[in-house]
Amino acid sequence: MTTPVALSADDARRTALRAQGFLGAPDRRGGVRGVLRRLGAVQLDTISVLARSHELIPYARLGAVGRAAVEDAYWTENHAFEYWSHAACILPIEEWPHFSFRRRARRARGHRWHVLQDADRSTAAVLDRLKTDGPLTSTELGGAKNGGPWWDWSETKIAVEWLLDTGEVVCTRRRGWKRVYDLAERAVPDALFHDDIDDTECLRRLVAQAGAALGVATRADLADYHRLKGEQVDSVVADTGLVPVQVEGWGGKPAWADPTALADASRGGRHRTTLLSPFDSLIWDRPRTERVFGFTHRLEAYVPKPQRIHGYFAMPLLAGGRLVGRADPAREGTTLIARQVSLESARAVEPMAQALREAATWVGCDDIRVERLDDPKLAAALTTAVAAS
Asked: How far is CA 379 from CA 140, 286, 343, 372, in A?
C-alpha cells in the first residue's frame, strides 16, 4: 500500500488555488475556452447581478475579458455543450463521450422529473421538427409551459428535455437565456459522437478530471464535482493517476492530489484579487470551502430578506490566496452598488476596493457606492479607498 504524501494545510490551499487558475499567471492565450477546459465544468444559473455566473467564472480568473467574448467562447463553433454535471453546466465538447454513463442511466430509468403522456409520439415530433427546421428553442418547438407554474411543463418541453437527458438532442448554445436544442448527431463532432465508452472508463475520466481541477481533494470532493456517488469514486480512483495524500487539518480523511499539482505545491506566484460567484467551482462545495479556507459561505438568494446575513448574492472576496470578505453587489444605472459588505479585517479594505473597482469597470459602471458595512471604521476606510480611484 502506498504511503500518502503529507501536505500542510497551506500547501493544500495553494494547490487548490493553482489548479483552479487563481495562483500564477493567468492563461490569457487559452482564454475563456482554456478556463473551461481547465475546470471541466462551468455552472449555469438564472441569477444575474453583476453578470450571470458563467460570465463571472472566466472574469474571476482572467480579469476584465469582454462579456461578448465570453459568450462567443462558450456558444459558437460547437466548442461546448450543456449537460448535467455538478448542476446544469457548460462542458467542453470533448467530454461528450464521458457522460454516456449518465445518459444510459437516464434511459434505463425511463423518466426524470416528468412523465410523457405519449413518449413515442412526442419525442418523434420533436426530432422531426429539429431535423426539418434546424436548432430551435422550446418556445419555437411549440411552447415550454402549459400556462401554470414554471414547473408545469408542456408535453413538448418534457419531450425535448428527455431527449437532452438521453443524448439524442444536445444544447450547444443559448439564445436570450433559452436553450437552443439541436440533433446531437448534427451538433457533436463525428469523432466524439459515440456512447461506446463503458461506465468504468467514463467514471475514471471524470474522477481524474475532477482531481485535476481541484488539485487536492477528498472522496466527497471528487464525488461532488460531477455529482457522482462515493462508491463510484471508490471503484475507479486507484486507476486515475491521482496520488494519495494526507492533509494537515483535514481530520485524517483520505485524499488525493493531481500529480502535476502536487509537484507545484510549494511554488509561489501571483495571487488573483477578485470577487467570486457563489457558483464558482473554487467554492461551490460548502464543506470543502470551510475545510480549505476556514470560510463559511451560504447563498442567501432564496432566504427570506429579513433572515439574510450577508445579502442576496453575496460574493466572497479572494485576496492573497484567502477568502477575506464579501460584497453583495447591484447596479443602478452606471453606479455599482455594494449593498452590503463584510470584511475579515482592516487588511481586506484595499483588496475589496480593488475588486469593486475592477468589477465596476468590467460591467460599464463609472461610480461605486458602498451602502452598508457594519463596522464604522472599516466603512469609512473602504469609502475612502474606493473614492481614491
From this structure: 50, 28, 10, 7
DSSP state of 3: P
Cβ proximity of 130 and 136 under 8 Å: yes
CA gap 36, 273 in Å, rounded = 20
pTM above 0.85, yes or no: yes
Is-contact 41 226, C-beta < 8 A? yes
DSSP 172-216: EEEETTEEEEEEHHHHS-TTT----S-HHHHHHHHHHHHHHHHSE
266-304: pLDDT as tens digits? 677 889 999 999 999 999 999 999 999 999 998 899 899
Which candidate, 39, 24, 28, places its Cα nearest to that of 266? 24
Reported as type and span, the H/E element at residue 18 is helix 9-19
| Residue appearing with cell numbers 446575513 | 309
Is residue 211 a contact partner of residue 257, using CB atoms and an 8 Å limit?
yes
Residue 359 in 3-state DSSP? helix
Instruction: Give 370's strand partners.
Output: 338
* β-strands 335-343, 367-370 pairing: parallel
| Nearby residues of 14 by Cβ (< 8 Å), 6 or more positions away | 23, 265, 266, 267, 321
